[in-house]
Amino acid sequence: MTEVEATTDPRPRLSAALDQTQYAIDAIEDADLGRPTPCAEYDVRTLLAHLVAVLRKLAVVGNGGDMSQVKDPADDHTDDWGGAFRAARADLEQIWAPDSALGKSYTLAWGAMTGRELLDAYAHEFTVHVWDLSRATGGGHELDRALAEAALDWYTRNVPAEGRGEGGPFAPVVTVADDADTYTRLAAFVGRPV
């Protein structure tokens, strides 16, 4: 196994984002499941199903499969979203454990990416979605600012602010105060109501 430099290995950041997401999921009460989230198309339950589906998609891609074959949001009917998330995460981490997986190219619906690029992008997606969960449920734990800073940097470099609108994955950028905290700036950049 080849040693991958920490600065280019997205797995530690993805792991931190998943830890933070797991913590938020474990704090969710049944009464929270129907609450709306800042991610307009999801209530809390549907967002949880989406997060589980994303983990499964990444596992399928890591095994050389087609992520479009994974139902998103997942159609699990569960009372244990934390358990479903942990199980899907364990599969993902096992599949992406070999360093060689990071340098391979994977074909996705929107183009080809290396494993390194793919896991990096999804670390940032989980960082945004944990803010969605926290905002929807009034989550009482502090979110990792370093994750938000990395995600904001990634989104500003990779997701143009121009040309957003109906039918796209991101709403127009929302204006926030210059001194807004990093998560608020991140949420605003990806078009969440803040």
TrEMBL record:
Source domain of life: Bacteria
Start and end residues of each Mycothiol-dependent maleylpyruvate isomerase metal-binding domain: 15-133
GO function terms (MF aspect): metal ion binding
Signal peptide: none
Record-given protein name: TIGR03086 family protein
Species of the source: Streptomyces boluensis
